[in-house]
């Protein structure tokens, strides 16, 4: 049987204040028409409204896939990689590269972001294209050759909100262009993926970055290389010279006589070398996962260390943060409760003081009609053992799903104390 370990602390709470109250609602409608389907989506939070519609299916005798969308769309895939080509700063002992390519994709409004411009997206077989009211144009093409998958995405952007858009000779009619080429190959024990991103800068220079993610059995290794200064990405983000190395190793076992029990354990790290700041940041994470038919239990211990250096010397490592977290999920027929607990330790002022933070959370997913999701999360802070305050977030979501349409609503509160 799994267990849940919590962190219990007692404090004198002097005042409560409801700092923020939010709500949102929306609905989806899907209508099948022969080989096609019509779909529309709407989201509102009282201040902003998002809408979108789409037509998808297969046409002609060869059943060529077609996907058309318009509205406040979420664009992802190869554009996300061009906007932010670095490796993810989030590490987990249980994640491992999948060896896939990401072509240009679009999704109808889902409430995950409320700052989406009006845009249009079309995909015919392996060709994709989109255009937004912000004059951002993108095209993507993919193909397969034996077991290799390739994606080529040339993109050109309109005016970009960044420092150089204020320059007199660029302010009125600036255009930037960027392109990404991806390739991937995988089987059960081996996966290889890479991409090369090219960026045309305001002065006409062509700069590039490179990234690769590889897996051999339970071991993975990823690399990111940006040898450029002041590189401007397709989103207007400015990137200095930067290098990353990310790795992961995992193991698993199983046992149990009458009830199967599975164990999974792993270790991961991320090293960030910043020649501009002249420092090496190292993040590590190790943990275990216990799973049986009724429950799962995760435990993760993470650390964050920075090593400053100069041209001829290396300073002592500086501990930034240590975090311990536990998560326990139960799988019943109608409800799936989830318990979370965590504590972090942060040294301050060259170890002369310290800050501790506790995180407690509970969520409940009720599989009914309509389905209900309830979530509560809290954070408590102390400095040198003295109470510094905290907050508590509460949220309730409802979703009603039928064969042709979905209706959803969400209410959330944020309380400080």
Description:
It is a single chain. With 417 residues, the chain is mainly β. It contains 2 helices and 26 strands. The protein has helices spanning 78-83, 168-171, and strands at residues 17-33, 36-44, 49-59, 64-71, 74-76, 105-107, 119-124, 127-132, 137-145, 148-157, 176-186, 190-200, 206-216, 219-226, 231-232, 238-239, 242-255, 261-274, 279-291, 295-308, 318-330, 335-348, 353-366, 371-383, 386-401, 405-416. The strands form 3 sheets. It has a 22-stranded antiparallel barrel. It has a two-stranded antiparallel ribbon with strand order 5-6. Strands 15-16 form a two-stranded antiparallel sheet. Strand 3 (49-59) and strand 4 (64-71) form a beta hairpin. The chain is globular. The two termini are 36 Å apart. 19% of the residues are buried. The model is unreliable at 1-14 and 158-174 (pLDDT under 50).
Structural class computed from helices and strand pairing: mainly beta
Task: Give the strand content.
Answer: over 45%
Spans of 5+ residues with little confidence (pLDDT < 50)?
Answer: 1-14, 158-174
**Which descriptor suits the 3D outline?**
globular
Mean pLDDT over the residues? 83
Cα(first) to Cα(last) distance is: 36 Å
Gyration radius from CA atoms, angstroms: 25 Å
Counting H and I runs of at least 4 residues, what is the number of helices?
Answer: 2
- How are helices and strands ordered from N to C? EEEEEHEEEEEHEEEEEEEEEEEEEEEE
The percent range for helix content is under 10%
Oligomer: single chain
Q: What's the β-strand tally?
A: 26
């Amino acid at each position: 049987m799994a267990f849940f370990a919590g962190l219990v602390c007692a404090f004198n709470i002097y005042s409560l204040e409801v700092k923020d109250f939010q709500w949102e609602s929306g609905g989806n409608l899907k209508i099948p028409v022969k080989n096609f389907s019509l779909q529309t989506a709407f989201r509102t939070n009282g201040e902003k409204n998002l809408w979108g519609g789409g037509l998808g299916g297969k046409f002609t005798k060869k059943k060529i896939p077609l996907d058309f969308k318009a509205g406040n769309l979420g664009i992802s895939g190869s554009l996300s990689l061009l906007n932010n080509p670095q490796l993810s700063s989030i590490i987990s002992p249980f994640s491992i590269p999948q060896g896939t390519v990401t072509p240009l994709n679009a999704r109808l409004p889902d409430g995950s972001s409320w700052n989406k411009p009006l845009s249009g997206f079309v995909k015919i077989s392996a060709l994709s294209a989109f255009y937004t009211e912000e004059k951002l144009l993108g095209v993507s093409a993919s193909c397969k050759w034996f077991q290799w998958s390739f994606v080529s995405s040339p993109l050109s952007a309109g005016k970009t909100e960044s420092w150089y858009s204020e320059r007199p000779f660029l302010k009125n009619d600036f255009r930037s262009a960027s392109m990404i080429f991806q390739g991937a190959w995988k089987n059960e024990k081996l996966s290889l993926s890479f991409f090369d991103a090219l960026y045309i800068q305001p002065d006409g220079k062509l700069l590039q970055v490179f990234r690769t993610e590889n897996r051999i059995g339970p071991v993975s290794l990823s690399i990111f290389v940006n040898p450029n200064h002041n590189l401007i990405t397709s989103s207007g983000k400015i990137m200095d010279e930067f290098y990353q190395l990310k790795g992961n190793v995992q193991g698993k076992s199983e046992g149990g006589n009458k009830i199967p029990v599975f164990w999974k354990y792993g270790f991961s790290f991320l090293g960030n070398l910043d020649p501009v700041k002249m420092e090496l940041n190292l993040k590590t994470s190790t943990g275990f996962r216990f799973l049986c038919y009724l429950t799962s239990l995760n435990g993760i211990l993470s650390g964050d260390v920075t090593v400053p250096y100069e041209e001829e010397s290396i300073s002592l490592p500086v501990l930034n943060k240590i975090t311990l977290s536990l998560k326990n999920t139960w799988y019943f027929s109608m409800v799936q409760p989830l318990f979370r607990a965590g504590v972090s330790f942060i040294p301050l002022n060259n170890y002369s003081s310290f800050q501790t933070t506790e995180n407690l959370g509970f969520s409940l997913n009720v599989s009914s009609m309509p389905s209900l999701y309830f979530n509560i999360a809290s954070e408590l802070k102390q400095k040198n053992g003295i109470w510094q305050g905290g907050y508590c977030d509460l949220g309730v979501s409802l979703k009603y799903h039928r064969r042709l349409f979905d209706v959803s609503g969400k209410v959330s509160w944020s309380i400080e104390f």
